[in-house]
Amino acid sequence: MTAKLVLHLPDHERAALEAGKRTSLYPRLKRMIEQRGGTVEIAPRFPPTAPDGNLHVVDNARKPHPDVLISALAYLDGCWHLDPKGVLADSSIAARRFDPETVDPAEAEAYVSRLRARFSDPRNSRYHQKKAVEQIDPEGIVVFLQGPPPYRRGHAYMGLDEMLHTVLEGAGGRPVYIKPHPIRKDEGLQVIKNLKAQGYQPIKTNANVHDLLRQAAVTVSANSAASLEGFLHGTPTLLFARADFDQVAGIVRTPEDFAPALEQAVTGKRDYTKFLYWYFSQCLWLDDPEFEAQVLRLFAEIGFDADRLGLSHF
Fold this sequence. Notes:
This protein is of the alpha/beta class.
């Protein structure tokens, strides 16, 4: 029996697909399968609890399922996870060892130069950012707020309040800037207001994320995409949650970890260029000439080759 590709999408992705927008992974998958004679079905967000003979791609699923690939934007626009294990902190990349000795430095530099030209040089990010350039103290610590996901999904090593108290109390005289998440601004402003009421002195900022990353001594987050974007600027990060890019980050599991992690971050040296090349070479880029071949390989690896999906070979 020929299998279908079933896309399980949230409302905004379904609406974009129906409107003919092509900036997401899902229109690309739908088009490539249908052009090869296969069948695509659009379904509610969650997959069946038991295999039904079809291949399911599920946006941001929390747990792996048989015959399912989980999908999510992989931090940078145009780059995606499509993974049987999970996405972001739960992606298969998290379990793979980064060995800089295996990465060709010239290839890495050329690859990351293209990323910088696309993202950090023009100051482009996933969410709307201010165009005006702003300056911050280069000794500063920049904290990026994220909202509930790291805490709801069990990725965080400590709660938001404890993280912020740890940073503010352990900053050692460094100014601490806090940037609310662009789509949760009111919530972030309330967090800052509460901290000030408790006697702390955080500095609210809504500067362009790349201005902050370019100038900060170190960034802090649970596991924000902004921390990974900081690697394009060579800026170290301290993470208070699991991430699939934490092999070149400082990890803070308890308040006592913060001071030594901060010292290591600002005095140590990490090879962010090789890491970015290693990391993003394992993701799907929508504009990669090999995109469709990579997708078909991922499908085949979980048992859905071209024949099972009823696809013509071309």
